[in-house]
Amino acid sequence: GIAPYRLPAWLTFTVFLRDVMIVMFAYLLYTRIRIRRFPPSIPGKVSTIVQVVALSVTIAANTPFAPIALPLMPIVLRICLVTTLYSGFDYVRKWDVVVADVAKAEV
Q: What is the pLDDT of residues 86-106, one digit of tens each?
């Protein structure tokens, strides 16, 4: 059957949108400006870890560990949203700096 406790659609959408944005901008930087190296950021890595924790807590909420996991779910899901949004904005900031640096070098 369907698990009674699932990741909210709004969180799934936010994580998916951030990842699509990262791939899209990395592709554009590579194809338009020829930037071949765009390493992950610390906020991006933290966001990924928090996403794994959120998924783990959600899975645990559907097991005998539910009494432990259920009180944690709202907190973990909100932290996941905040870290995902922050890392997305951090990537946009990094891309802005990279594009500005390329523009300066071409002048």
A: 999 999 999 888 888 888 887
Dmax over Cα atoms in the chain, in whole Å? 63
- Which residues, in sequence order, are CB contacts of 5 under 8 Å at separation 6+? 58, 61, 62, 66, 70, 73
Q: List the alpha helices (DSSP H) in 1-107.
A: 9-28, 42-60, 66-106
| pTM for the full predicted model | 0.88
The number of beta carbons lying within 10 Å of the beta carbon of residue 82 is 12
For residues 37-72, b (16+ Cβ closer than 10 Å) or e, as one string?
eeeeeebbeebbebbeebeebbebbeeeeeeebeeb
**Residues sharing a CB contact under 8 Å with residue 41, sequence separation 6 or more, in sequence order:** 87, 90, 91, 94
Q: What is the DSSP letter of 39?
A: P
Residue 71 CA, distance from chain mean position: 23
How many Å is the Cα radius of gyration of the chain? 18
